[in-house]
Write a structure and sequence with these properties.
alpha/beta, Rossmann fold, 2 domains, four-stranded parallel beta sheet, 12 helices, about 20% strand
């Protein structure tokens, strides 16, 4: 292994076909990574044994790789973690099966695992094969509701070099009616707080609006709740860093994912950023509504 003064960063990008791996690889390349797609797993250690690499590596890996398997990739990741001078992590791009079917239908592409059948057969088989990788991912990004532009922004938040923080934080809001977000580490329920939905002048607004935020934070129960959550989160960040964790996702949920969870997520993201942590935000239901409006206008 190369003897360098600093570690070489290696990001292995994987996930189901159609989830946006190529877009992620291109985004990483624009961030200064040397991008290599579909390199056989057996060649990766030899690549790192070669001359010192001047840039971090982004490696695209999926079922099209000649010697690809979930077990082999996990074994390789474990091997790289034991090597000095290598900072390896896995980025897993997830996506709902229904969305993948639609994407293959729109592009008329054939799925690599079912070239002679309908895409759904290959999609279901691939998702099952990749379960161990999804569970092992250092960073998991669900692209089901993300446009290519939004995915690029998310990649930039997580992987921009010299970000200045050892742990990447993602703070999200969601609606319990649509289920828990994928890949979250900590979930907090905001449904006990006063609901702006029942205030006529606030109903059409969302939690990013100062009036909605003021309504939520004026609930007598809010201050104690937020202080406890803030204290818990801040008490865990340094231990997570010490354990080598590179990312943490915190989610706040409410009934509709529009008012309370958004307001609390915004305040928590702001608080963590003020503490010097690198923070990205995502409001799942607001993104969904925006995409629905865009589709209606285009239609």
């Amino acid at each position: 292994m190369q003897d360098t003064a600093s570690s070489i960063r290696v990001v292995m990008v994987t996930g189901p076909s159609g989830a946006g791996r190529s877009s992620a690889i291109n985004a990483l390349e624009d961030l200064g990574f040397e991008a290599i797609d579909n390199l056989p797993l057996s060649l990766i250690p030899r690549l790192l044994d070669g001359p010192p690499l001047p840039r971090p590596l982004a490696l695209g890996l999926d079922v099209r790789n000649r010697d690809f398997s979930a077990e082999a990739l996990i074994e390789l990741l474990d091997r790289l973690h034991r090597l000095p001078g290598v900072d390896a992590e896995m980025l897993y791009l997830d996506c709902d099966a229904e969305v993948l079917v639609r994407r293959f239908s729109e592009t008329r592409r054939r799925h690599p695992l079912s070239p002679d059948m309908t895409p759904i057969a290959g999609i279901e088989q691939e998702l099952e094969l990749l379960v161990p990788l999804r569970d092992r991912a250092d960073v998991l990004i669900d692209t089901s509701d993300l446009t290519p532009h939004a995915l690029r922004a998310e990649i930039t938040r997580w992987f921009a070099p010299n970000s200045g923080a050892p742990l990447s934080l993602s703070v999200q809001s969601f609606s319990y009616k649509r289920g828990l977000p994928r890949g979250v580490d900590m979930v907090f329920d905001c449904r006990f707080l006063s609901n702006p939905h029942w205030v006529p002048e606030l109903r059409a607004l969302d939690g990013r609006d100062p009036a909605v935020a003021a309504h939520v934070t004026s609930d007598p129960r809010f201050a104690d709740f937020f202080a406890r959550v803030e204290g818990l989160v801040l008490s865990l960040l340094e231990p997570f860093v010490d354990e080598g964790k590179s990312s943490l996702t915190i989610a706040f949920g409410c009934t509709g994912g529009k008012h309370r969870s958004v307001a609390v997520a915004e305040k928590m993201a702001r608080t963590l950023a003020e503490q010097g942590w690198r923070v990205s935000k995502r409001h799942r239901e607001l993104e969904r509504r925006r995409m629905d409006r865009s589709a209606t206008e285009q239609g």
